[in-house]
Amino acid sequence: MTSLVLLEFDPSGIKQPSRSAVAAAQALGEVHVLVAGTRLDNAAAAAAKLPGVAKVLVADATGLDHLLAEPMAAFLVAVAPAYSHLLAATTAVGKNIMPRVAALLDLQPISDIAEVVDADTFVRPIYAGNGMATVKSSDSKKIITVRAASFDPVAAEGGSAAIEAVAVADLPGLSKFVTAELSKSERPELTAARVVISGGRGMQSGDNFKLIEPIADKLGAAVGASRAAVDAGFVPNEFQVGQTGKIVAPELYIAVGISGAIQHLAGMKDSKVIVAINKDEEAPIFQVADYGLVADLFTALPELAAELERS
Amino acid sequence: MKILVPIKRVVDYNVKVRVKSDGSGIETSGVKMSMNPFDEIAVEEAVRLKEKGVATEIVAVSLGVAQCAETIRTALAMGADRGILVETTDELQPLAVAKLLKAIADQEQPRLIILGKQAIDDDMSATGQMLAALLGWSQGTFASKLAIEGEALTVTREVDGGLETVVLQLPSIVTTDLRLNEPRYASLPNIMKARKKPIANMKPGDLGVDTTPRLTVLKVAEPPKRKAGQKVGSVAELVNKLKTEAKVI
């Protein structure tokens, strides 16, 4: 039984959610990984160093650049016969591609698994994580996305897998990449950060997120937001933590001016330590917080920045 | 251009759902049901395209129990022209839903299908991509902006690090993200008008689709509960506790 994991990478190496997907695949048996696109030398070398990986498939084709769903799915269908499980992280890329692969193979995908029970059985959250469903698949092959926050990522170094180029046949040209506007930030990615500090509707404006920045700088934290803050236009959608945004599980999560709707809790309640700062004593966020501070965030945030600066 | 908008009836997003005590699933009896919020955004986008003169007809489709007709009625009140209900009490998983929608698309021949990026009940985020695969169409998932020019559909997508823009060859599938638009409330006159709009009724068997589930739910458990912690009196106390007690900073 061999699994294939689709990896995402950037110039600094294999992305952390993909390394979590590799960890999930290791519970199923032998693991091969795939890097696709062009100019793949660095990515292939980084993939070969992942511990516990037997083989790296390198699919070098301009048609696979930007990992567009239509060509990627066609390619994955072509390599699927050799594998019992195909996996990717539950990211914008994984969610876009994997269900398309599944449908082409007449399979029901298993989205966002949080636990591997056995080769056919997985645990996945439903209803914003208010239920954990154990599901057993009767399909001959499993197409899976992996909730990165639920699996400790494999290390970036330590392995020495074989690297093998694979042929890429004709790809469908239904879609074309135009541009990517990625937010430029010196901060860690939300899903990979050790500390996350998020603002909610209580921040009152996008400008006020500046109050969070010195604290994020001091703690090396990623900045997030609740859906309410995104809906209100304070910050872009890629900041969103919750059921319909990103799922995070950092060591420390600081929720500022966030009431704690179930949709937000779904995205952060697996964090190791949760701090809530809110002026409403009754806010539901306090029911999940390890440390709650009932205070006006406009005085508490500058104080917190100063206190961290002092220590 | 005809637009098909598949919509799902789900437990209302404001309901605090409970796991059934026998672990067989989520308690849904006597619970308020509504249109999946992302599907409302899909209906709204279709209606806006019609108002701009891009779309000529909007067909809202729902699959499931008889009460899904109410969900279709909501879409008709928002501005969809007619509805199709594929009625069944059987459980439908995304693969079966995609196959049923493909059969309807084969009959209706839309140029564009807009649907929510995920349903807030099973949180699968799969149906749109699967439907695109079965039809052999292009897909623009997690869309925050659409523009149609001739046979080209430009979609701005919400991706992990920001935004990505792709150009798709029509016909296409678009799945909606939350910033695509803000759905309207149906006005009373439009709710009255919607009562007269037609809803066709059919069964999965009429479409020749096998809907047997591929996933069996063995059990549904409560997630591990977090216990509420302690209140701290000041920022200084908070920082001190994070350092000495939690040891996370």
**Which two protein chains have the largest interface (Cβ within 8 Å of the partner's Cβ), and how many residues from each?**
A-B, 91 and 83 residues
Helix content of chain B: 25-40%
* SSE-based structural type of chain B: alpha/beta
Order of helices and strands of chain A: EEEHEHEHEHEEEEEEEEHEHEHEEH
Secondary structural class of chain A: alpha/beta
Q: Which sheet architecture does the biggest sheet of chain B show?
A: 9 strands, mixed
The number of strands of chain B is: 13
Overall shape of chain A: it is: elongated
Mean pLDDT of chain A: 96
How would a crystallographer describe the biggest sheet of chain A?
Answer: 7 strands, parallel
Q: Care to count the β-strands of chain A?
A: 18
Report on this model:
The complex is a heterodimer of chains A (311) and B (249). Chain A has 311 residues and is α/β, with parallel strands linked by helices. Chain A has helices at residues 16-26, 41-48, 69-79, 92-104, 213-219, 227-231, 262-268, 297-310; strands at residues 2-6, 9-10, 13-14, 30-37, 55-60, 85-89, 110-113, 115-116, 121-126, 131-137, 142-146, 162-165, 175-182, 195-199, 222-225, 252-256, 273-278, 291-294. In chain A, the strands form four sheets. A seven-stranded parallel beta sheet of chain A has the order 7-11-6-1-4-5-12, with helices on both faces. In chain A, strands 15-14-16-17-18 form a five-stranded parallel beta sheet. In chain A, helix 5 (213-219) packs parallel to helix 8. Chain A is elongated and about 60 Å long. The model of chain A has no long low-confidence stretch (mean pLDDT 96). Chain B is an alpha/beta fold. Chain B contains six helices and 13 strands. In chain B, strand 8 and strand 9 form a beta hairpin. Chain B is globular, with a radius of gyration of 21 Å. The mean pLDDT of chain B is 96. Classes of the chains: A alpha/beta (311), B alpha/beta (249). At the A-B interface, helix 3, helix 4, strand 7, strand 9 and strand 10 of A face helix 3, helix 4, strand 7, strand 8 and strand 9 of B. Strand 10 (131-137) of chain A pairs antiparallel with strand 12 of chain B.
